[in-house]
Amino acid sequence: METSVILIIVFIVLMIAVLFYILKRMVNKMDQESKSYFLNNLQDYDKLIDEKESKLETIKESLESLKEQESKNQSEGKEDHSRMDPSALQAVISPDLQDGNILKTMREIQDKFQLQHDATIKQFVKNHPEDKNKTKEYKLCQNVLNLLTFDFAYELETTMEKERWNKVLVKLNDETKQYLKKQKCFEKPFNEARIWIEDRAKETDPNIYILTGEKDKNYNDIDSRIQMKYDESIYLGLMICYQNKLYDYSLR
Fold first, then answer.
1. pTM for this structure?
2. Are strands 236-242 and 208-212 parallel, antiparallel or unpaired?
3. Which helix (H) or strand (E) holds 214?
């Protein structure tokens, strides 16, 4: 009798030890996945910071060069006409704009860009009419992406892979589920499918994003799909971003 009790106790202790070992491995795996997710995000942020610092350094060097040139011109009793190279703008500046007062020249350049880009945007909109099927697909992708708030994304990262889709599916409508099934998203790990969904959303986005260096510039009256974005690196003109493609009409 005593031997049986001892054996039972030993068996229970062994079971507890095995369960503890399994639980510890699960916790370590979830912790590693969570750290990996945030480290990847931090690396992305570091890249953005490095790019900003590089741009700021370039601007600083340009300003120093202008100051030196201005100081040199003042000491020689000359006016400063070296801040803009007219030859770089041959495509948009007529010969009669290359002489005279620099401020007048800049204003006329800006007027010419304004006229050209109104027409350019109208032509672009005409050449890229909205595709209703793509717009529907974009909205279905957004149904998934809009779920991924910081808290919910963290919750998914701390969940076992086979349970992640279950947590997402309970929050989606039937139409979105059918779309994901048709695209075979459920056959992939969730994070792999998420990347595909993000890319597909960009490729089907009906919005036309206009990037300009003027904060108050607005072309929304041309088409309801136009979304304005400010880009401090653009000196004149604009860029158009549409369905993951960039069309550059700017001087930077």
1. 0.54
2. antiparallel
3. none
